[in-house]
Amino acid sequence: MDLLEKIKAKQAVVGIIGLGYVGLPLVLRFCEVGFKVLGFDTDASKVERLNRGESYIKHIPSSRLAALLTPREGAGHFAATHDLGRLGEPDVLIICVPTPLTSKREPDLRYVEQTTRQIAACLRPGQMVSLESTTYPGTTAELLLPILGQKHRVGEEVYLVFSPEREDPGNPTFQVNTIPKVVGGVTPACLAHGVALYSQVIDRVIPVSSTQAAEMSKLLENIYRAVNIALVNELKMLCLRMGVDIFEVIEASRTKPFGFQAFYPGPGLGGHCIPIDPFYLTWKAREYDFSTRFIELAGDINSNMPYFVVQQVARALSDHHRALNGAKILILGVAYKKDVDDNRESPALKIMDLLKQEGAEVSYNDPHIPRCAGMRHYPHFDLVSTPLDERTLKEADLVLLVTDHSAYDYAWIASQARLIVDTRNAFKGIEGKHIYPA
Predict the structure, then answer these.
(1) Structural domain boundaries, residue 140
(2) Distance between CA atoms of 83 and 338, rounded to whole angstroms?
(3) What is the pLDDT of residue 169?
(4) SS3 category, 10
(5) Mode of pairing for the β-strands spanning 371-373 and 420-422
(6) What secondary structure does DSSP assign to 129-145, as a single string?
(7) Closest CA to 141 of 211, 216, 218
(8) Measured in whole angstroms, how far is the alpha carbon of residue 104 from the centre of its chain?
(9) Is 273 a catalytic residue?
(10) Looking at the domain assignment, is residue 190 inside a domain?
(11) 69: left (phi over 0), alpha (psi -120 to 50) or beta
(12) If we measure between CA atoms, which residue out of 150, 278, 148, 139 comes closest to residue 210?
């Protein structure tokens, strides 16, 4: 049975490399439709937890994982390993490793390259490799193809595709299977294998002409968001100066049934995609002597929002005859977005760092993130979420709402706090001269 037949019969073993917010939902979906899945992760503690049926991601219940650990006839089965020497066992390998930026805002593809070289060392005829990690156009063809094609004919013996992840953690409306999947192959045969694979688990698969087109499509999606968020962030700052409520303006504008999509301002960008991915294209564009001015301008506006928030905090304190230096600031929410347990690239971290630099005494509460420690850009952070009670609120000189979790009782918080700076319009409709927008 060749690979295409194995995929269509759900007899192919699927290997997923990187068992985080992208990889773990894929594990569940492939198992749910009947595939055997072998997960790979270099973090041995993660592997041990997964093999015990324990989830470390809030929106993925442990019960779903535990149900997949016992082999059952006609059902999928999952096991995890940190032994990358087993990469030759699966018929399909899906790469879901991080693609961060360096300190100079340049692509950091070391995880992708290391993984590809480890795959190449085990690669055998009849395997397919799919890269899902977001990257610049040309990565699959320029980086992966030469490595994987050293010993095997790509498109004949082995197959290579790019299919960008489209995860939205915490979104109750869209699941893995209902989010359309873009796929590009380095050859027509590669594309056919990629479409066949993802058609088994995704309701709608969109084939494109090349891996470069698929890579660019992912960047366009995230750049679209980054630019529009920067636009409303800039208008928010202008509206505050003009005495206009930007949220009221947005709600009025979104009543137009065509030509407008609502984006909302906030304290800055967060998460593993939007603050990072646009700069992959900025970097690649330099090879073509092209300046991506919209992307760079949006990046400047969004990355400066934490500084603006700190200015608003200082202004609110000053209005109440209190200096920022020495003030007790309680941050509400350090996750990068509402109701998730993920604080990667969260603007809250930058805000906390800036407040500390100004001499403020900073604490935080987040019902989804009990500990904030060991961050890539802030290795000195080691904070534990403080209980949100009457004493905590009354002791704080200022409460700064950064992430508007549903668990917060905003009316109660407003009744207890001395001074509030709200970056999310969460206290809308609650009266009080002690509530400042930011």
Answers:
(1) 3-209
(2) 35
(3) 77
(4) coil
(5) unpaired
(6) EEE-S---TTHIIIIIH
(7) 211
(8) 20
(9) yes
(10) yes
(11) alpha
(12) 139
Task: Specify whether 114 is located in the same domain as 39.
Answer: yes
Provide the token pair at 75.
Answer: 């059902």
**Helix 246-253 with 211-242: angle, nearest 10 deg:** 130
**What is the reported pLDDT for 323?**
97
Query: Position 277: which residue type?
Result: D
Q: Is residue 93 over pLDDT 90?
A: yes
- What is residue 150's predicted lDDT score, i.e. its pLDDT? 95
CA distances from 137 to 20, 201, 272, 284 (A): 23, 25, 18, 8
Q: What is the pLDDT of residue 239?
A: 97
Is 83 found in the same domain as 197? yes
Q: 51 near 39, Cβ under 8 Å?
A: no
Q: What is the pLDDT of residues 258-286, one digit of tens each?
A: 999 999 999 999 887 888 999 999 999 99
CATH number, domain containing residue 419: 3.40.50.720
CA dihedral 313, 316, 320, 325 (to 10 degrees): 20
pLDDT digits (tens, 9 = 90+) for 317-376: 999 999 999 999 999 999 999 999 999 899 999 999 999 999 999 999 999 999 998 777
pLDDT at position 115: 98
Instruction: Kindly name the residue from 31, 190, 239, 273 that is annotated as catalytic.
Output: 273
Is 303 within the bounds of a domain? yes
For range 303-307, the mean pLDDT: 96
